[in-house]
Design brief:
The protein contains twelve helices and 13 strands. The protein is of the alpha/beta class. It has two domains: 3-55 and 227-351, Nitrogenase molybdenum iron protein domain (Rossmann fold, 3-Layer(aba) Sandwich); 75-200, Nitrogenase molybdenum iron protein domain (Rossmann fold, 3-Layer(aba) Sandwich), CATH 3.40.50. The strands form three sheets. Strands 1, 8, 9, 10, 11, 12 and 13 form a seven-stranded mixed sheet that branches. A four-stranded parallel sheet has the order 5-4-6-7, with helices on both faces. Helix 5 (185-199) runs antiparallel to helix 6 (202-223).
């Protein structure tokens, strides 16, 4: 492949990876020697805040009661919502056959207790484990319309990366489609509430949002009195080097966790050079696990240690791996990535 073609092709990779990270597999239990794998924090010294990196503290995803499905909505009480594409979607009966076209959507639907009503997911939907058993409808950007139609869904939950053509085609067949495109934590929580409303699981949605708000609040309170804000760089890929800039949910996580995004003056996901990283000299480098989209060996970590040896974060042993699935999917699990970032940044402050 020519070098000139790589940036163009990676644009496609990037748009997909922020939704399907981890598609090559889940984070292995044992990482490469020397990798700082932050699994979670039971407590943080010198703070009254207790943070946990364990799974959802409300009823575990996929185990909420789905037997008592609300009866059909009457025509006099239609539910009308506006999705992230700006479409008004009218729901005239409680969805009972749901197809999810993005891993982030699948995670949220299961967390709402809708596992029993999910009849189809993408090839990359790997969480919770029950999602792996669901019928597959193709890839994230290569949805098989025929497979979706064959499942006879009464609701399809799509995402920006599926493409407008896919959404329009499904709507053309009379399928009810809700499209999501969250850009920050507030958007994720709003999407959770929206899905709770249209599926009759408002109570579960409220509990899920409250859990997220509580974890965000705990981290904010812990960092409130800290004036030091270490410089943080988040690297998604290395050939070319892609980093998270302002306007991304990762930039928001870094800020809430008490850091400063060293590339915060750049908007969106951007290509930078090794010279840029040397010039900005971050105190902390965060890399996605595996290839940047999950998988086996931590390619990004190994590359950073080898190629960025003159950057302060590498010199001081502050390159950290975070599971691609939790940091690059706009799902409720972003708050677990927030906790990990808070632990990393707090550790840096204590040691310096």
């Amino acid at each position: 492949m020519s070098k000139s073609a790589r940036p163009f092709l990676f644009l496609l990779f990037l748009s997909i990876s922020i939704f399907i990270s981890g598609c090559a597999g889940t984070l292995p239990s044992t990482l490469d020697s020397g990798v700082k794998d932050v699994k979670g924090v039971e407590s943080i010294n010198n703070s009254s805040v207790t943070i946990s990196g364990s799974e959802l503290k409300v009823t575990p995803p996929g185990t909420l009661d789905t037997q008592d499905i609300p009866s059909n909505i009457t025509n006099s009480n239609l539910i009308r919502v506006v999705d992230d594409f700006g479409f008004e979607v009218v729901i005239n009966k409680t969805p009972r056959r749901i197809v999810s076209l993005a891993p982030s959507n699948t995670e949220i639907l299961f967390a709402l207790g809708l596992g029993g009503r999910i009849v189809g997911v993408t090839d990359y939907c790997n969480y919770p484990p029950e999602a792996l058993k669901k019928p597959k409808v193709g890839g994230f950007s290569t949805v098989n319309i025929e497979k979706v139609l064959a499942l006879n869904p009464d609701l399809v939950v799509a995402a920006y990366g599926n493409g407008a053509e896919t959404v329009e085609t499904l709507r053309g067949y009379g399928i009810t489609v809700i499209s999501l495109n969250p850009k920050n934590l507030t958007d994720v929580m709003r999407n959770i509430e929206l899905l709770g409303k249209v599926t009759g699981t408002e109570e579960n949605a409220t509990r899920l949002v409250e859990m997220m708000e509580q974890k965000i609040r705990e981290v904010e309170e812990m960092m409130a009195n800290s004036s030091e804000r270490p410089k943080v760089a988040h690297i998604l890929w290395h050939d070319p080097i892609w980093v998270s800039g302002s306007g991304t949910f990762i930039d928001e996580l870094v800020r809430i966790a008490g850091g400063t995004n060293v590339f915060g003056d750049m908007e969106g996901w951007k290509i930078v050079s090794i010279e840029d990283l040397l010039a900005r000299n971050p105190d902390i480098i965060i890399v996605n696990s595996g290839t940047g989209m999950g998988g086996g060996k931590n390619i990004l970590y190994n590359w950073a240690i080898r190629e960025l040896k003159d950057v302060r974060a590498v010199k001081e042993g502050r390159v950290y791996v975070i599971d691609s699935d939790i940091i690059s999917r706009p799902s409720y699990r972003l708050v677990y990535a927030l906790e990990e970032l808070a632990k990393i940044i707090h550790e840096h402050k204590v040691l310096t």
